[in-house]
Design brief:
The chain is about 25% helix and about 30% strand. It is of the alpha/beta class and about 400 residues long. It has 2 domains: about 90 residues, Urease, subunit C, domain 1; about 290 residues, Metal-dependent hydrolases (TIM Barrel). Strands 9-12-13-14-15-16-19-20 form an 8-stranded parallel beta sheet, sandwiched between helices. Strand 21 and strand 22 form a beta hairpin. Helix 5 crosses helix 6 and helix 8 runs antiparallel to helix 9. The chain is globular.
């Protein structure tokens, strides 16, 4: 049975055989995936192939490439360095974790520094296929929930400050902001007009702030459980924060750093029970320490950080400084520590993040890019393909 075919005239063909294909609704055996000129052209029942390039999957899983909406860096390189060389190092490292598309994520910084990053990303996108755009995290976030970011550079959103960013809607795909700020709703309105995803994060919002932001178009929250308000007393009443609003509202998708440090397995299970796999978007929030050995020092836009026991920390050990994880590490955690079925964990790393930013990726689609990852039975990445080109092999 043939599930569809795109009409293309280019050769050669690549036929991925003898694998277990991972779809959002389950894992299926007995199928070939055919790619031509970097595009998926057919998914069909296994058939003999003569003369084409055969990729023997040897019984391993074949999944759509992972999509990371929140990645600051890797291997000592950071998005804020605003260089194509840094971007390439970041993308190459995360390809080893199965990531085929990512949003290079900025840190809280002066607007001119963020604009410099955006301009460099625009120039680099054509040569680095993994780059899907930019996620602007800060400066419009709360000093009461700074995490590892520099509170001294955080600002309330006023049109005069954020106007330069609005001119780059073709590159900026997502922005994290604190919805409780005066001016936040106007900014969310502007982002929505430009098809930029607004995400609540680094926020001390009450539930009414979150609800109003949702009504204006905020549809996700950033690194759920981390740097966000939770239930507390207001007068004689106990009131929800951004966390509880996000968990209770079906229209909100929750980022989750499932590295086992940012959020415990019990909390991850609670989030999974509340949101299911369609409401959770796995992100690494990886910083420049990802891929470095223990004891390595790095910077998060002026904040000194260190890698210790595979974890990224501020140098004074007062807070986590992003993660050292790759997407496959998060998928493995969801399966082994939370008990999520593999196909659902992979959907959290593919289909759901694609939906958040309106990216036409994240599933096996006829006519779509052949962004693919081969995963072993032990949930390790063996090979990664971007538009049919192999960019990583273990």
């Amino acid at each position: 049975m043939d599930f569809g075919r795109a009409k293309r005239n280019c050769v050669p063909l690549m036929i991925f055989k003898n694998g277990r294909l991972v779809f959002p609704n389950g894992v299926r055996d007995g199928l070939d995936l055919v790619a031509e000129n970097g595009m998926i052209t057919a998914i069909r029942a296994q058939a003999a192939a003569i003369g084409e390039t055969i990729v023997d999957l040897e019984g391993n899983y074949l999944a759509p490439g992972f999509i990371d909406l929140h990645v600051h860096g890797a291997m000592g390189r950071d998005t804020m360095q605003a260089s194509t060389k840094a971007f390439r190092t970041i993308c190459d490292y995360h390809a080893s974790g199965g990531t085929t598309s990512l949003l290079l994520t900025t840190a809280t910084a002066p607007i001119k520094s963020i604009v410099k990053v955006v301009n460099e990303v625009r120039d680099a996108k054509s040569s680095i296929k993994q780059i899907a755009g930019v996620h602007v995290e800060g400066p419009f976030i709360s000093k009461t929930k700074p995490g590892a970011q520099r509170a001294s550079l955080m600002r309330k959103p006023t049109r005069s400050i954020y106007r330069p960013l609005l001119n780059h809607s073709g590159v900026i795909k997502r922005m994290t902001l604190a919805p409780e700020f005066p001016g936040a709703l106007a900014l969310i309105d502007e982002l929505r007009k430009r098809n930029i995803s607004a995400s609540g994060g680094h926020s001390d919002a009450w539930e009414d702030h979150a609800r109003t932001a949702f009504e204006h178009g905020m549809r996700s929250v950033t690194h759920t459980f981390n740097c966000m308000s939770s239930t507390r007393r207001r007068g004689i009443d106990r009131v929800a924060g951004l966390l509880e609003f996000a968990m209770s509202e079906p229209g909100i998708i929750c980022e989750l750093i499932a590295d086992g440090h940012h959020v415990s397995p019990t909390l991850m299970k609670m989030l999974y029970r509340a949101k299911s796999f369609t409401g959770i978007c796995l992100v690494t929030d990886a910083t420049a320490g990802a891929g470095l050995k223990d004891g390595s020092k790095f910077s998060l836009y002026g904040n000194k950080c260190i890698v210790e026991k595979g974890v990224c920390l501020l140098a004074d050990r007062s807070a986590l400084a992003g993660s050292a994880s790759r997407m496959i590490d998060l998928v493995r955690t969801m399966v082994t520590k939370v008990g999520v079925p593999l196909h659902e964990a992979i959907a959290m790393a593919t289909d759901t993040p694609a939906f958040v930013i309106g990216l036409s990726k994240g599933q096996f689609k006829i006519g779509g890019d052949a962004d693919l990852v081969v995963i072993s039975r032990e949930l390790e990445v063996l090979r990664t393909f971007v538009a049919g080109e192999e960019v990583f092999r273990r």
